[in-house]
């Protein structure tokens, strides 16, 4: 395939960089998927089988519950996100002439490449767990698997829960989600070793959770539950805290996004 024309456009360079990133680490990522299948599927099934006195129905039922309540999907997603963070850290801090930071492409193109490659890894993970769910639904006893046992049932329930939230709460949730994505990436860009990056992520999470919890506790401690007027005041204070939180998170997310751009540009110039 002649790719010379792709080098002349920004989208073409992003496509080539993303393709190279995915194919270059595909083997290690598939091995990682196999390890996750053993850890999250085979090992729990075997443990439940032994704990139940080798009752297949009990073991399958326990695993089915992990599918239906989203625990398995969350575990897979979190593990894949950790893998992607380690991959980003190694990608930008590799010291060799063909390093990612030395490739003739703009910082924005490289950020887009990392984002698309991460989405590709997450898509592969979703496909893997979908295939596992289908295989499980075929081999599990009829007493365990019912008509509602499908992976997209979890997604439908999640969309329903989010849909019941008010617009302000959805904005707060979106701000928190963006923060949970961009903050770890920034930490990985600033530290050459993934372990140090994860330590920084842990400290920031503790700080953010601590501040949020202390403010919520303060609001509740100042409220009295003797009459409905105080309950209304409590509701107004909680909404005020939520709005302040959303505003701060929007500013913080913008600052972190710029920090990612600046840090990658700084590394690229070294």
Automatic annotation (TrEMBL):
Residue stretches spanning the membrane: 29-51, 71-93, 114-140, 171-191, 198-220, 240-261
Keywords linked to the UniProt accession: Membrane, Transmembrane, Transmembrane helix
Domain of life: Bacteria
Transmembrane listed as a keyword: yes
Name used for this protein in its record: Putative membrane protein
């Amino acid at each position: 395939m002649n790719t010379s024309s792709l080098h002349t456009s920004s989208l073409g360079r992003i496509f080539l960089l993303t393709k190279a990133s995915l194919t270059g680490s595909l083997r290690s990522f598939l091995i990682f998927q196999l390890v996750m299948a053993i850890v999250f599927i085979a090992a729990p099934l075997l443990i439940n089988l032994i704990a139940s006195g080798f009752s297949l129905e009990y073991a399958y039922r326990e695993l089915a519950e992990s599918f239906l309540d989203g625990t398995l999907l969350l575990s897979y997603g979190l593990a894949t996100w950790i893998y992607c963070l380690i991959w980003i850290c190694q990608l930008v801090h590799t010291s060799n002439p063909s390093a990612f930071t030395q490739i003739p492409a703009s910082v924005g193109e490289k950020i887009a490449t990392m984002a698309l490659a991460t989405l590709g890894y997450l898509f592969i993970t979703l496909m893997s767990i979908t295939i596992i769910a289908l295989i499980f639904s075929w081999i599990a006893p009829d007493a365990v698997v019912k008509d509602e046992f499908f992976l997209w049932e979890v997604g439908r329930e999640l969309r329903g829960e989010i849909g019941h939230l008010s617009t302000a709460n959805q904005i707060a949730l979106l701000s928190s989600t963006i923060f949970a994505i961009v903050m770890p990436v920034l930490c990985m860009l600033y530290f050459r070793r993934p372990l140090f990056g994860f330590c920084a992520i842990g400290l920031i999470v503790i700080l953010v959770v601590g501040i949020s919890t202390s403010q919520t506790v303060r609001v509740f401690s100042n409220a009295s539950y003797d009459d409905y007027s105080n309950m209304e005041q409590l509701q107004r204070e909680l909404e005020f805290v939520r709005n302040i939180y959303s505003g701060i998170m929007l500013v913080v997310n913008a600052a972190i996004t710029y920090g990612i751009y600046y840090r990658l540009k700084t590394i690229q110039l070294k």
